[in-house]
Amino acid sequence: MATVKSTDLAHQEAGKMMSLITNQLPGLIQQLNSHGQTLSDPNQWDGPLAQRFRGEVWPQARGDLDKMRASLEHLQQQVQKILTNISQAGGA
């Protein structure tokens, strides 16, 4: 059986990561989506740069935000495994 080392600091840092992933980042991603949607509305902003934003910039950014959300879900699962591992090792 492999030896597992875990410190209180490791547990604290994993907990902080989990807090950011579950409490702060989803809200920030949602805010970015909301702002992007508003800027994509020609009733709110129009002109050549606005059209470029709507047609090129925002669709790419929205896709990137969706990928980020999926990556965060995966990271959340991995951090939960870390916290479980640390707890089982007696580091918390």
Automatic annotation (TrEMBL):
Protein's recorded name: Pyrophosphorylase
Species of the source: Actinacidiphila rubida
